[in-house]
Each structure stands twice: as structure tokens, then as C-alpha cells.
Amino acid sequence: MTKLSLVGFILGLGALLVALYLMIVLVPAAEIASADMDRISSEMLVSVRKTPLYENPEYQEAFDAYEKPIDLGTILLIFSIVPFLMCIYPAIKKNLLGILGLVMSLIAFFIAAAYGTHMFS
């Protein structure tokens, strides 16, 4: 049970760190990319060239940066379930690492659910 709680704790810590990276780094970058996409699309409406918007490499980069939090959030949503399941039994037995792993995986799950499922879109 000690090994199970230790592995669950480490995975929960990893999931929490990835969730914080998602929330602190990727989401603000996606907001900047969204503003860039709006700027590029407004410039393309005024320009003389009538190339499709999706063929513009700058727009493609901004779109990729805009979609990155959703992709990572979806992956993290699935990944954060694993430490939760690993820490349930040790947490019931009142193992401290199991309880901490359970709490960290729950926090990571809710952050991933918020950004991976368009909850705040």
C-alpha cells in the first residue's frame, strides 16, 4: 500500500504541475493567439490579395497556439484519473501520501476539465 500511495502521489504531483503549466503558461498564450488571429483576419479582409485565411502561415501558428490548451487539457483530463484511482484505497486507509495524491489529482482534474472541455469559452 505504501508503494501504491507513493506512485499515486508522484503521478498526482506530475498531473498538478502539468495543470498549473496549462493554466499559467498556455492559457494566456492562447488568449494572445486569439487576438493575433482576429488581427490577421481583419487585415485579410482589407487586403487586395484574396488568399484563404488558413493558408497564411502566421494565422496557422496562431491557431495552433490557440488550440494547444484544449488539446493538453483533454489529455490531462484522462491522465489525472489514473493517480486518483491509485490513491483511493491508500486515502481510505488514512495514508498521508494517498490523501495528498488524491487531492492533487482532483485539482488537476478540475483544471483540465475547465480548459479541456471549453467550460470557459
Q: What is the 3D shape? A: rod-shaped
The ordered H/E elements are HHHH
Which stretches of 5+ consecutive residues score pLDDT under 50?
none
Put simply, the count of helices is 4
Annotation, overall tally of beta strands: 0
Q: What does it look like?
A:
This protein is mainly α and 121 residues long. The chain has four helices and no strands. α3 packs antiparallel against α4 (96-116). The protein is rod-shaped. The chain starts with a helix and ends in a 5-residue tail after the last helix.
Concise account of the structure shown:
The protein is mainly alpha-helical.
Features:
single chain, mainly alpha, 4 helices, 121 residues, rod-shaped
Outline the secondary-structure elements.
Elements: H1 2-46, H2 57-79, H3 81-92, H4 96-116
Helix pairs in contact: 1-2, 1-3, 1-4, 2-4, 3-4
